[in-house]
Amino acid sequence: LQLVESGGGLVQPGGSLNLSCAPSGFTLTHYAIGWFRQAPGKGREGVSCINTMGGSTNYADSVKGRFTISRDNAKNTVYLQMNSLKPEDTAVYYCNLLVGQIPWGQGTQVTVSS
After folding, report:
1. Got the DSSP string for the chain?
2. Are 95 and 33 in contact (CB under 8 A)?
3. pLDDT band for position 100 (50/70/90)?
4. Is the model's pLDDT at 73 over the cut of 90?
5. How far apart are alpha carbons 33 and 36 in whole angstroms?
6. What is the dihedral of CA 111, 22, 51, 100, to 10 degrees?
7. What local confidence, expressed as pLDDT, does residue 1 receive?
8. pLDDT confidence of residue 92
């Protein structure tokens, strides 16, 4: 089982990115999914999570009002729309199951810099 993150990049402060999380070898439909990030020299922290049907979401205080998590079960993908990005959002972003986490993927690098 593996999750593949994509959509990261270099963006200026105030910019936007839309990250995607897609599985390899299984279906996401039955799983609540979380987005996590790890900044240089820091531990991994939770950013946002979504339940199986997408009707319940949660956000870390640091991203509330700027990030939006969503899922398209027909496309077997979970998204993280990130707006009003700040330099402190710079990190490698990962997705994983909320319960029964599987080995972490490669993540996708997000760099916010002018």
Report:
1. -EEEEE--EEE-TT--EEEEEEEESS-STTS-EEEEEE-TTS-EEEEEEE-TTS--EEE-TTTTTTEEEEEETTTTEEEEEE-S--GGG-EEEEEEESSSPPPP---EEEEE--
2. yes
3. confident
4. yes
5. 10
6. -100
7. 83
8. 98
Token duo for residue 79: 């998204």
Q: Report d(CA 86, CA 83) in Å as an integer.
A: 9
Mean pLDDT in the chain? Answer: 96
The sign of the CA dihedral 5, 7, 9, 13 is: negative
Beta strands 17-24 and 2-6, pairing class: antiparallel
